[in-house]
């Protein structure tokens, strides 16, 4: 049977693509913009933590709005507030580094609103059969925007004086966010179902043998890596080259590789491959960090970036799909899908904050460049911990898929 996506899934992908494109244009260089005003890794780390705290709190609080009222308005509000964030950055200019916490809170709130609504709608318009296909397309669109956005932004920034290039790309992002809001009105209003249970994430973890007790540690492990890697990779490329155009080139190359790997994964990576695929992907994501132990340069960073783009689908697709499959595993889970999306994000948030705090703490002890590399290697092993936690959830999916073949 041919697996395909319906019109609502395609429209949701389009809204996601515009949101990610605007983020790729501006977000890729946001931390570089802050870094140029103050060369402080810890400052960037605290900016990340402020985002994650706001994002997690927004998921939990806005869960009631999304479940009991109009989740599409939450999606639109998330896009609009993200645009507001870039307006504030434009207004603050070089003084933005003095407002790390309020700016981080605004951005985290915006991302929380968008991704909470997106994840719930994503669950509703997909099923266990086409979820890997949808995730593959999400990765594919992310790679395409990663090719176009940073390359264009780097080209604009490198050809204009002072901060003029940054102001132009932030403005372009504002326009794209506005288009995304308009497009979102073509998504159907989703049905409201049930009352929001504030403490459902805690209750779920108290249930003995509940599968979420395996999923949550895996998600925390995923967050451990993401928290630091989300900002440090691009920053290291800029520090090594001091050229925005090189960062654009780096993103172009790595995203081009990701384009192919996510396309292949979306086409061929079936549920029965999740168990072994995630293990192989986790190991290879650690292996590609090893060249940095020799030297941190543009070349070794490029090896790392290409390897990560190549092997990430093997790791991330089983993580995402298995987690969302749990939300559809029973009638009760479907009814509590909003609360379970909140549980998923709170788990990721906990890991991201923990990883970033470890990063800040170690840098407070030593600022030696080799220290950064060892921190990356240590946090880079987190996918292996994720597989160890998730393997019991992946193996049954493997057996069921084999029987249905």
TrEMBL record:
Localisation per UniProt entry? Cell membrane
The record's GO CC annotations read:
plasma membrane
State the Gene Ontology terms under molecular function.
transmembrane transporter activity
- Where are its TM segments located? 12-35, 41-62, 74-93, 99-122, 134-156, 168-187, 273-294, 300-320, 341-365, 371-390
- Please name the Pfam families in this protein's record: MFS_1
Stored PANTHER family: INTEGRAL MEMBRANE TRANSPORT PROTEIN-RELATED, MAJOR FACILITATOR SUPERFAMILY (MFS) PROFILE DOMAIN-CONTAINING PROTEIN
Q: Which organism is it from?
A: Paenibacillus zeisoli
Q: Which UniProt keywords apply?
A: Membrane, Transmembrane, Transmembrane helix
Protein name as it appears in the record: MFS transporter
Protein's membrane topology: Multi-pass membrane protein
